[in-house]
Write a structure and sequence with these properties.
heterodimer; A: about 350 residues; mainly alpha; 14 helices; B: Cytochrome-c3 Hydrogenase, chain B; 3-stranded antiparallel sheet; 13 helices; globular
Chain lengths: ~350, ~400
């Protein structure tokens, strides 16, 4: 009984510490991303804290604007759901949660990620911004082409694209996620970390400096899976070249277009924490260094290595155009094939 | 639903603009789509009516020409030049050869700056920010040179009736600076173009979309690089007396797609560099302006020339006091956009916007309307046009 109480206290305190650190840290990532992009483009770029931290703060103080949507209550709540989902996603990969009801497993991660993708479909189907069909232009005046057909808001088209991305676009990420679990022959994160970093699992010292002895990343299937994971990461974050569901040139921002003031600040928090959570999951699963709030060295190492994917993302974004489904379908199929190859090899290993 | 002769099923309509973060000028795009495929398109460009032609009426010709330069900020020189060509043609005013050389040189400098704006915009639409920002960086060389020649980056005001402003005459040191800058630019630009052509992702976005056949280009009168990218060998510079002393190639491409429209412009920049070098090196000695003319009554006279986007027409008459009557301007964008309305059918939605942008639309200089009714000319506002004739008129 006493052990259970201690565990629950540990779970709560570690979750609070981890969530606070992750949220604050994630607010720095967009600044780093933008700085790298700017340097590639021979620009100075914004100060590091501006795109993540100060813009969130600024939007927090903006005048409240009611979103122009079908069900405002639902639309507003989606962003809160989103924050909850990405924070839970991150927490499930921290050591205290590994023992809770099997959530610290591939099922927990994949389930929450799928839920996060569904949010964009819901947001898109709700939002009805002024910037497309709602514009007061006499489209249906005499002489106009095709009167009487369904007129769609750009956000609704974004929702359709989000469905397509759910069906195929995010497939590579899920295939890549399976590889470390297949190598550990377990569905639990604890087994994946134990396989790579037995010293950490064995140690109970809070000053432990256990480094992984055999990271998945340094194996052949691990490298293949890491590459596929990175591309899947870009797809899930809806960043270029896979930002078709929020392509600025036609859909502007997609389903999140109507989030303004505080809601926009929350959306930024959601997106930033997701960016960090997916990076942290990569470090945990592919390198074997979990985010343990009670072992400072491991936590700092996880934070530092979590910069890897955002920096690579920034470089990719700077050099990539937006791909259309003409290119996304073959790319997703090809990457999934590479992921499946890695999976087959890892099962052999 | 039907579109023309072909029967097409249309699932829905997507509309963008005139206020849209990706449209640099206001126009309305209505795409009629099946899933992601565009089956039909409607472009409404008359969103920023300025009535600039009406401003000319009754002005002394010298003052009116200052307004002509302000028709467009990107092709200011070509509007000013063509405006003076009308009166020079109508009143048989001789232009010194040295002035023609400087006019041609400024024209080609602005052509390069204009093409680089298109690359910037097109790559912004493609989503490739690095190529877009590089394009604007490269453009700075020529913006500087234009300001050295004319004293202003955007409105150099080089041509005047009978020649050029004396301040735009080239000194020996300026000639040296121009040649040096052109060499520097060419080296950087070659690297830029090579990187674009060798980028498989960018090429996959540009290739095989926005087909416009030569027959359609001629039918819609899609002039300039837009028509030349469909294999139509039509460049008014080959017929202009001012260009007779210069050697250059007319770039055409048979690919007929969006990539061709970008590539033709990319290669035209090298031809412009060639012309600038010839103009500077072979600049004739002599005066730069002929002031022995007098504004007098002139019949309607028309001047055509090859601007950066295609064929440009200016036309006006002078009354007995030398004041402008019935100024008319026809820019290439309306016909080019009509061609793009046709070309984007079959593209994905995101590609259709790129196809429309690939004709380098410039709307501020083309959104005007004039309706000739019973022999009397009117300039109507948007509202009046819609009320009287319906939207598509």
């Amino acid at each position: 009984m006493e052990n259970l109480l201690l565990f629950v206290l540990g779970l709560i305190s570690s979750s609070i510490v981890a969530a606070v650190i992750a949220t604050l840290y994630s607010l720095v990532l967009p600044g780093i991303e933008r700085k790298v992009q700017a340097r590639i483009q021979q620009r100075i770029g914004p100060p590091i804290l501006t795109p993540g931290f100060w813009s969130v703060l600024k939007f927090g103080y903006k005048k409240k604007i009611e979103p122009n949507v079908q069900m405002p209550g639902l639309y507003r709540s989606l962003v809160y759901f989103g924050i909850g989902i990405v924070i839970l996603l991150f927490l499930f990969t921290t050591p205290y949660w590994w023992a809770v009801l099997g959530w610290g497993s591939i099922l927990g991660i994949a389930g929450l990620l799928k839920l996060e993708e569904v949010l964009y479909v819901l947001m898109g189907s709700q939002s009805q911004s002024f910037l497309s069909t709602g514009m007061p232009v006499p489209d249906l005046a005499k002489g106009s082409k095709h009167i009487g057909i369904r007129r769609e808001f750009v956000e609704q088209h974004s929702a359709e694209r989000a469905l397509k991305m759910m069906a195929i676009g995010s497939l590579p990420l899920y295939v890549a996620l399976l590889v470390p679990f297949a190598m550990a022959k377990s569905t639990m994160i604890s087994s994946v970390v134990a396989m790579q970093n037995p010293a950490y699992i064995m140690s109970s010292d809070w000053l432990s400096t256990a480094l992984p002895s055999s990271p998945v990343l340094f194996t052949f299937p691990g490298i293949l899976a890491a590459i596929v994971y990175f591309v899947g990461y870009v797809m899930l974050l809806n960043e270029k070249p896979f930002s078709i569901l929020k392509a600025k040139i036609d859909l502007i921002e997609g389903g999140v277009l109507e989030y303004a003031s505080k809601l926009r600040a929350y959306y930024y928090i959601m997106r930033n924490v997701l960016m960090f959570a997916l990076s942290s999951i990569f470090v945990t699963l592919f390198i074997g260094i979990p985010f343990d709030p009670f072992v400072p060295f491991m936590m700092l190492l996880n934070l530092a290595l979590s910069l890897l994917l955002p920096v690579m993302l920034a470089a990719l974004v700077a050099f990539s155009p937006i791909l259309t489904f003409r290119q996304i379908y073959p790319a997703a199929i090809g990457l999934s094939a590479v992921g499946i190859l890695a999976l087959v090899i890892s099962l052999g290993v | 639903m039907t579109s023309g002769e072909k029967h097409v099923e249309i699932e829905k309509e997507l509309s963008f603009g005139p206020v849209h973060p990706a449209l640099i000028e206001p126009y309305r795009i209505r795409l009629f789509v099946n899933d992601e495929i565009v089956e039909d398109c409607e472009l409404n460009i008359n969103m920023a009516y300025r009535g600039i032609e009406k401003l000319f009426d009754g002005l002394p010709v010298e003052r009116a020409l200052l307004i002509a330069e302000r028709v467009c900020g990107i092709c200011s020189h070509v509007h000013a030049w063509n405006a003076v060509r009308v009166i020079e043609g109508g009143l048989n005013i001789d232009v010194p050869p040295r002035a023609d050389y400087v006019r041609v040189m400024t024209h080609e400098m602005q052509r390069i700056a204009s093409h680089l704006i298109l690359f910037g915009h097109a790559f912004e639409v493609v989503g490739h920010e690095t190529f877009a920002t590089r394009s604007f960086l490269l453009r700075e060389s020529f913006m500087d040179l234009i300001s050295y020649v004319g004293g202003n980056r955007v409105m150099p005001s080089v041509p005047i009736i009978g020649g050029i402003r004396p301040r735009a005459d080239l000194t020996e040191s300026l000639k040296r600076v121009i040649l040096e800058r052109v060499d520097e630019f060419e080296e950087k630009y070659k690297g830029y173009v090579t990187r674009i052509i060798e980028d498989p992702l960018v090429m996959s976005r540009l290739t095989g979309i926005g087909f416009l056949t030569k027959e359609d280009a001629i039918k819609f009168h899609a002039t300039g690089p837009t028509g030349r990218a469909s294999g139509w060998d039509y460049d008014l510079r080959t017929k202009m007396d001012e260009y007779k002393p210069f050697e250059f190639n007319v770039i055409t491409d048979e690919s007929c797609d969006t990539k061709a429209r970008i590539v033709v412009r990319a290669l035209e920049v090298f031809e412009s560099l060639k012309i600038i070098r010839q103009a500077v090196k072979n600049l004739p000695e002599g005066p730069v302006v002929n002031r022995s003319w007098k504004a007098e009554e002139m019949d309607f006279t028309t001047a055509y020339m090859e601007t950066y986007r295609g064929e440009l027409m200016h036309s006006y008459a002078l009354d007995s006091q030398g004041k402008i009557r019935n100024y008319k301007i026809r820019t290439p964008t309306p016909t080019n956009l009509a061609a793009m309305e046709h070309a984007c059918v079959g593209d994905h939605v995101t590609e259709a916007i790129l196809t429309i942008a690939s004709c380098d639309p410039c709307l501020t200089c083309c959104t005007r309307a004039e309706v000739v009714d019973s022999g009397k000319s009117f300039v109507l506002s948007d509202f009046e046009i819609v009320r009287k004739y319906g939207w598509r008129k």
